[in-house]
């Protein structure tokens, strides 16, 4: 049987990230981004082989962008596309694994939208457009939350009145599940261990950041909660703050909920602390030049990350390794070494040269022999979504 092709789609409210995944090749034959959808600046950009190209789509929406993508996908896949995998952020408690898109599944994604008001409606726009443009193709939804549905109740419940959970779904869900699942499996392969009999701490550090405790291939705890704001310091998100901060700002400054929401999600994190940038690369460069805000932002980021990893140690029976992934985790020896320096209690120690070597897609072990394993594992959410899609097509 020839290697199969899956188109992976990740829709935002005005964007679509896409990748054509061929099961036999690690490189994507085609990938790109449609952005500013719905505005006069709407544009489709793609890369095929080494070549980049773009097409303006003034006022084009999700459907217009996908329609333009169709011939590109046909060209890059040799004419045969076997299915479409959609990244959907929130699957609530209903979805514990990927699902073939049926009217019932689509209705359930719509019903869960109050838990992810920015993300699920955007995914549904892409799903509607893809179903109308590719009606003959099997399509699958892969949920960011699904991997964390194995959390025990003591890890997912908040200590708030039970009715908020029972009637309104207020609990911890966790996100980045596709990445945590992919890299924990890869880590087990790299270490020569069975994923079903191994325990990992995973730090996914990109613009959004989260940690996860993975035991025997299942998520047992994670740092994000009801929304992707809980937990670590991120690019523009605060992560954990005192929950009374909301009331305090409302009372003392008269801020509205919208203002507080914006501050915590868009103006905080690395950007808020540094007063400079949400981008770790820029902050590392500024730190080199002695910028005090950038230096502090990196210190807080690493300390809070180490604290989260140490806390998640409670969920592990033993530690087979710590995994770094995501744009920062895969590329920042500085963040890795500063974080591990706070984890001496776990007996972690990094090999300086190995740590420096693992950047720009190079993964591997970076610990000092005789100390617990620390791995850099490049994530590949698109590939995991394609694999999940293929598995469902075979079922
Ligand atoms: P992601 O969301 O996974 O694409 O990750 C984005 C984050 O990775 C941004 O904060 C980037 O600054 C960071 N990043 C990418 N390359 C590097 C690098 N070479 N050094 C430090 N941070 C990096």
Automatic annotation (TrEMBL):
Belongs to the acetokinase family. This is Acetate kinase. The record marks 176, 237 as: Transition state stabilizer. It is found in: Cytoplasm. It is an enzyme of class 2 (transferase). One of its GO terms (cellular component) is cytosol. Mg(2+) binds at residues 10, 381. Mg(2+). Can also accept Mn(2+). Catalyzes the formation of acetyl phosphate from acetate and ATP. Can also catalyze the reverse reaction. The gene is ackA. CDD domains: ASKHA_NBD_AcK_PK (cd24010). InterPro entries: Ac/propionate_kinase, Aliphatic_acid_kin_short-chain, Aliphatic_acid_kinase_CS, ATPase_NBD. Signal peptide: none annotated. Pathway: Metabolic intermediate biosynthesis; acetyl-CoA biosynthesis; acetyl-CoA from acetate: step 1/2.
